[in-house]
Amino acid sequence: MKQCEFCKETFVPAVKKTRFCSKTCANRSRYQKALAAPPDEYRECQGCGESFPVRYRCGQKSKVVCNPNCMAKLKYKRKKAGLPTKTNANHTNWGDIGYGNRKREQAMAKLIPGPTALEEALWA
Ligand SMILES: [Zn+2]
Ligand SMILES: [Zn+2]
Protein backbone atom coordinates (compact mmCIF):
# COMPACT_ATOMS: atom_id res chain seq x y z
CA MET A 1 0.00 0.00 0.00
CA LYS A 2 1.07 3.55 -0.71
CA GLN A 3 -0.27 6.99 0.12
CA CYS A 4 -1.15 9.29 -2.75
CA GLU A 5 0.98 12.45 -2.60
CA PHE A 6 -1.95 14.58 -3.62
CA CYS A 7 -5.19 13.31 -2.03
CA LYS A 8 -3.51 11.26 0.73
CA GLU A 9 -5.64 8.21 -0.03
CA THR A 10 -3.95 4.87 0.26
CA PHE A 11 -3.77 2.79 -2.88
CA VAL A 12 -2.06 -0.23 -4.36
CA PRO A 13 0.41 1.00 -6.95
CA ALA A 14 0.58 -0.79 -10.28
CA VAL A 15 4.18 0.29 -10.65
CA LYS A 16 6.39 0.60 -7.58
CA LYS A 17 7.49 4.18 -8.20
CA THR A 18 3.92 5.51 -8.68
CA ARG A 19 3.37 8.49 -6.38
CA PHE A 20 -0.29 9.18 -7.10
CA CYS A 21 -3.45 7.08 -6.88
CA SER A 22 -4.72 8.24 -10.27
CA LYS A 23 -3.87 10.22 -13.38
CA THR A 24 -6.10 12.99 -12.09
CA CYS A 25 -4.07 13.35 -8.90
CA ALA A 26 -0.85 13.34 -10.90
CA ASN A 27 -2.25 16.08 -13.16
CA ARG A 28 -3.55 18.12 -10.25
CA SER A 29 -0.24 17.93 -8.52
CA ARG A 30 1.62 18.97 -11.67
CA TYR A 31 -0.74 21.86 -12.26
CA GLN A 32 -0.52 23.11 -8.69
CA LYS A 33 3.24 23.07 -8.98
CA ALA A 34 3.06 25.02 -12.23
CA LEU A 35 0.80 27.58 -10.53
CA ALA A 36 3.13 27.90 -7.58
CA ALA A 37 6.19 28.34 -9.77
CA PRO A 38 7.47 31.83 -10.53
CA PRO A 39 5.78 33.30 -13.61
CA ASP A 40 7.52 33.19 -16.98
CA GLU A 41 6.88 36.85 -17.51
CA TYR A 42 4.79 39.84 -16.44
CA ARG A 43 2.48 41.54 -18.89
CA GLU A 44 0.50 44.73 -18.88
CA CYS A 45 -3.22 44.00 -18.62
CA GLN A 46 -5.20 45.26 -21.64
CA GLY A 47 -8.11 46.01 -19.35
CA CYS A 48 -6.70 47.83 -16.32
CA GLY A 49 -3.10 48.49 -17.31
CA GLU A 50 -1.66 46.72 -14.24
CA SER A 51 1.06 44.17 -14.75
CA PHE A 52 0.11 40.53 -14.14
CA PRO A 53 2.02 37.23 -14.08
CA VAL A 54 1.91 34.83 -17.01
CA ARG A 55 2.70 31.14 -16.62
CA TYR A 56 3.18 29.30 -19.91
CA ARG A 57 2.75 25.88 -18.36
CA CYS A 58 -0.74 26.84 -17.16
CA GLY A 59 -1.90 27.58 -20.71
CA GLN A 60 -1.52 31.35 -20.24
CA LYS A 61 0.98 31.97 -22.99
CA SER A 62 -1.12 34.47 -24.89
CA LYS A 63 -3.16 35.85 -22.00
CA VAL A 64 -3.79 39.58 -22.27
CA VAL A 65 -5.89 40.48 -19.22
CA CYS A 66 -5.43 39.81 -15.51
CA ASN A 67 -8.99 38.75 -14.59
CA PRO A 68 -12.52 38.27 -15.98
CA ASN A 69 -13.52 41.85 -15.17
CA CYS A 70 -10.72 43.14 -17.32
CA MET A 71 -11.79 40.77 -20.08
CA ALA A 72 -15.21 42.42 -19.98
CA LYS A 73 -13.57 45.87 -20.02
CA LEU A 74 -11.42 44.90 -22.96
CA LYS A 75 -14.40 43.53 -24.87
CA TYR A 76 -16.29 46.75 -24.22
CA LYS A 77 -13.36 48.83 -25.43
CA ARG A 78 -13.10 46.72 -28.55
CA LYS A 79 -16.79 46.96 -29.21
CA LYS A 80 -16.63 50.74 -29.01
CA ALA A 81 -13.66 50.75 -31.34
CA GLY A 82 -15.54 48.58 -33.82
CA LEU A 83 -13.17 45.61 -33.40
CA PRO A 84 -14.34 41.99 -33.19
CA THR A 85 -15.16 40.77 -29.68
CA LYS A 86 -16.17 37.21 -30.49
CA THR A 87 -13.39 34.73 -30.10
CA ASN A 88 -12.59 31.75 -32.23
CA ALA A 89 -14.22 28.59 -30.82
CA ASN A 90 -11.12 26.46 -30.42
CA HIS A 91 -8.29 28.82 -30.06
CA THR A 92 -9.38 32.14 -28.71
CA ASN A 93 -7.91 34.44 -31.23
CA TRP A 94 -8.98 37.83 -32.47
CA GLY A 95 -6.39 37.89 -35.17
CA ASP A 96 -4.67 40.97 -33.84
CA ILE A 97 -4.88 39.90 -30.21
CA GLY A 98 -4.59 36.49 -28.60
CA TYR A 99 -6.28 35.44 -25.45
CA GLY A 100 -4.56 32.32 -24.24
CA ASN A 101 -5.78 28.85 -24.84
CA ARG A 102 -8.92 29.20 -22.83
CA LYS A 103 -10.08 25.62 -23.26
CA ARG A 104 -6.81 24.35 -21.93
CA GLU A 105 -6.89 26.77 -19.02
CA GLN A 106 -10.41 25.73 -18.12
CA ALA A 107 -9.64 22.04 -18.46
CA MET A 108 -6.66 22.47 -16.18
CA ALA A 109 -8.60 24.55 -13.70
CA LYS A 110 -11.18 21.80 -13.39
CA LEU A 111 -8.46 19.61 -11.97
CA ILE A 112 -8.39 21.71 -8.84
CA PRO A 113 -11.43 21.47 -6.56
CA GLY A 114 -12.99 24.46 -4.79
CA PRO A 115 -14.01 27.87 -6.14
CA THR A 116 -10.98 29.72 -4.79
CA ALA A 117 -8.57 27.30 -6.38
CA LEU A 118 -10.58 27.43 -9.57
CA GLU A 119 -10.46 31.21 -9.68
CA GLU A 120 -6.77 31.11 -9.01
CA ALA A 121 -6.21 28.50 -11.65
CA LEU A 122 -8.05 30.51 -14.24
CA TRP A 123 -6.79 33.94 -13.46
CA ALA A 124 -3.65 33.68 -11.35
ZN1 LIG B 1 -4.84 10.67 -5.15
ZN1 LIG C 1 -6.55 43.94 -15.41
Topology summary:
Layout: E1 2-3, E2 10-11, H1 23-36, E3 41-44, E4 51-54, H2 68-80, H3 102-109, H4 115-123
Antiparallel strand pairs: 1-2, 3-4
Helix pairs in contact: 3-4
Bound molecules: zinc ion (2 copies).
Describe the 3D structure.
The longest helix has 14 residues, at 23-36. The strands form two sheets. The chain has a two-stranded antiparallel sheet with strand order 1-2. The protein is α+β, with helices and mostly antiparallel strands. It has two domains: 1-36, no CATH class; 39-123, no CATH class. It is elongated, with a radius of gyration of 18 Å. It contains four helices and four strands, in the order ββαββααα. The structure holds zinc ion (ZN) (2 copies).
**What integer is the average pLDDT?**
76
Please tell me the total number of domains: 2
* Heteromolecules bound: zinc ion
Strands of the largest sheet, in order across it? 1-2
Total helical segments: 4
Q: Determine the oligomeric state from the structure.
A: single chain
Give the beta-strand count. Answer: 4
Strand content: 5-15%
SSE order: EEHEEHHH
Termini separation comes to 36 Å
| Biggest sheet details | 2 strands, antiparallel
In the predicted model, the low-confidence regions spanning at least 5 consecutive residues are 88-99, 113-121
Percent helix, as a range, is 25-40%
Q: Based on CA inertia axes, which overall geometry fits?
A: elongated
Rg is 18 Å
- SS-derived structural category: alpha+beta
